[in-house]
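Q: For a teaching handout, I want to show students what a protein-ligand complex looks like in token form. Below are the inputs, and the small molecule is nicotinamide-adenine-dinucleotide. Please produce the holo structure.
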Amino acid sequence: MPGVVETSRLAGDGRRLCVVGAGYVGLTAAACFAHLGHDVTCVECDADRLAVLQSGGIPIHEPGLAELVAAGRAAGRLRFTEDVGSALVGAAVAFLCVGTPPQPTGEPDLSFLADAARSLARTASSDLVVVVKSTVPPGSCEALELICAEEAGPGVHIKVASSPEFLRESRAVEDFLSPDRVVVGAEDPDVARLVADLYPAGPRVVLCDRRGAELAKYAANTFLAIKISFANEVAQLCDALGTEAGPVLASVGADHRVGPEFLRPGPGYGGSCLPKDVAGFIALGEVAGTRTTLAAAAEAQNTHARRSVAHRLELVLGGLPGRRVGVLGLAFKEGTDDTRDSPGVQIVHDLVAAGAEVAAYDPLATPDLPPGTRSPSVADTVAGADAVVVAVASEEYRSLDPASTATQMAGRVVFDAVGVLDLDRWAAAGLSVYGVGRGVPLAFYPVVWTPLRWTTAGRTVAAAGAADK
Ligand SMILES: NC(=O)c1ccc[n+]([C@@H]2O[C@H](COP(=O)([O-])OP(=O)(O)OC[C@H]3O[C@@H](n4cnc5c(N)ncnc54)[C@H](O)[C@@H]3O)[C@@H](O)[C@H]2O)c1
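A: Here is the structure, written as tokens, with nicotinamide-adenine-dinucleotide included.
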């Protein structure tokens, strides 16, 4: 499609681009492409989101994104519309960044993607390259290309390429502008070059076929999930053995073949991507007839990690009915307002289901919560609490003053599910701090503690030193 390439060029190096979907991925891509000199029209079908965008705001919290959107608009290189037709004027490339939420089977719901592709194809009046940034199972780009061929007008040729997005929420702008890698999947080398050239220069570009690019995203997220679940598995062992997981996992991560990232124990992974993509990876294995035992184990370990926070609090408090528990942090991680599949929200529901009275706070996130559980501030959350749970590793909670927290609380129990509190400082304030892999006090495991044993040449020695046969 060389002709298309030429007509879409602007005076500088930029191109006219259409981006469909103004969520975490689409809005970041649109603003960053505008920042890189492209002329971008972003299509959003949600009337509320669009109204916010058209009035100069942004509908999500993402550091640096509001400034980039404002700069793009001021430069005349970024605009928002619900009208696909106007967004496609002069554009030879359209990015699909719509949601692919999980279905009960684990497979993603691709209907938003199919609808968006149909609408692009029906509207396009000249050749178009559609680039799928949404996370989709292998074979999706091929299927979308068939859908586009059915819908496109006479003489309009649409090619579909894959370029999955790897950005992290709360660092979306940084990740988009300085990615570890850009993956482009296209069988046609001209299309691959066209897409790769749109991105910032510098990062490693991985070129492959479409199925490979689509699978790369699932494989990357599943590997990260396995790492997190492994860290939780080690942390559980550490708790049972009465030692801290920090040094153990630091030793593992110091090996350059492993790396330290994603080796922090906690209340399990959440968010809109990891749980969905692990489930998608397992579903892919089922469809393809291959074994995905590691992914399934990561998922099972994650479910356990998430549910164990309320369970362990129940053990420490000797029951939850009537106990007042403050939960700090409802977003799925620090620095974001996203609460999709959030461990903090799950903890609130688990505690309420077990009979606790919950006060839950987050400075950015506003998820649906059980009635009467939302708290307006940290102070209101800890006031009169029998126990406080820290569920997001934010600076706000890290810098809490233990002494004043202790005076506000009714009880003495703090459960630091994300490992941000300084145990010695909090213990000095008279509080009992529990956590995941923090060398939990023995009393935590009144029943499950077993003596350590090691065996040599047929002789077994108990940890206390007594030898037995
Ligand atoms: N959120 C992340 O951190 C992240 C990172 C990498 C990849 N992804 C993947 O990217 C995709 C999008 O994720 P997201 O978090 O940005 O989703 P999102 O739900 O935040 O945003 C999707 C947006 O698309 C809009 N939309 C849906 N159909 C549309 C249509 N036909 N026309 C115009 N707008 C339409 C929705 O209204 C919504 O605003 C998913 O497949 C996700 O798995 C997400």
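A: Two things your students might notice: Residues 1-7, 442-449, 464-469 have pLDDT under 50 and may be disordered. The two ends are 78 Å apart (CA to CA).
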